[in-house]
């Protein structure tokens, strides 16, 4: 077995580790209670369905507002505003919403509200680009030919956008179905999802066999849905067109109000927390230690993500490997974390290594689909030409792949580092004490000190910015060294 084959096999085993390890450690002696499974699955399906539905409705409205801005600084600012909730860890959206809404509805309604707030902006940006590049020329032609707005909407826009809306809806559905942190915080007793039920099965009753079955069923369901989503890629057209006939400036107003709501809620919490500064007395050393822990965890996850992405590139292309990565579904967050929990001791320095590794395992599939796969596919022609001319795999990686993809890997690693800095759900399972600012924020939220939690969370942004810049800058330096 050569090096590339060994690395491919190692990556596959790493991604499948939670299932392989737990199946070898625990026997499935009892199946989950059918009524309990039905109830949790119903909750997961309900919140995912309505989160996707409302994300599509509000996302389409916002998208029609974005296309009215066309290009320029206003358009870029609006797109950044849309993507902020999806780019930042869910903790920030939770803090902003809980601060802004005095009587927040815990349970399914709360989960749907938070998921919609996080995801509709991403839907808006994707739909706006689809409208401009793929459907715009047909709308423009219909408008020039004198078709009414009603006719354009119901005979052109909706029919041509139906498939895209379906794929985007399924994409959001998958994200929400496997969500752990949001249901854990705002689900309450009546909003228990399959993911939270897995957590409770292991944490509260140590029913590992039932938890493994639940995780397997959840992964199987998500895989089936994601397989449908994977069929939805359609190459965009190259020409953009006028969309005056469907543009809705009210969508811009809606975006502005949502942004105001988000920043008002978060800003209000920060200011109220700082006004109670005396309550932070004595917390200085703990805050500094937690901040250092956040930076360390973020940088470690960023480095591991960078290495994992580069290993994928080094092993590229291989038909079965590509198919595996394209169809791979990350395991249950709870199951993956508990598998690492029992693998080694959970004291001392171990959590600082296990948390980044677990987060890389859970996020690598997302990073791969955030453009890494398309970057590698774009270079396949160069790889084939170089291989035909006698270049070795190591030379192809060093001379062709690495210089062209290092900075992209740095950006994706930086995103993983930011997510790690804001993680509290994985850390809550794998750490025996507060090792990061996110965990400290979670503890303050659990103690109903929301203002203090929001004020402390500002340090997560600082830690995330440090890690992101370090990952991006480090990848640039490495590229320059390889080119030298």
From TrEMBL:
ABC transmembrane type-1 domain span: 41-229
Transmembrane intervals: 48-69, 81-101, 107-128, 165-191, 211-234, 246-267, 287-312, 324-343, 349-368, 409-430, 450-471
Keyword Transport annotated: yes
Entries under SUPFAM superfamilies matching the protein: MetI-like (SSF161098)
Alphabetical UniProt keywords: Cell membrane, Membrane, Transmembrane, Transmembrane helix, Transport
Major site of localization recorded for this protein: membrane
UniProt keyword Amino-acid biosynthesis, yes or no: no
Stored PROSITE patterns: ABC_TM1
One annotated Gene Ontology cellular component of this protein: plasma membrane
Membrane topology field: Multi-pass membrane protein
Residues annotated as signal peptide: none
Location within or outside the cell: Cell membrane
GO biological process: transmembrane transport
Family recorded in the similarity comment: Belongs to the binding-protein-dependent transport system permease family.
Name assigned to this protein: Thiamine biosynthesis protein ThiP
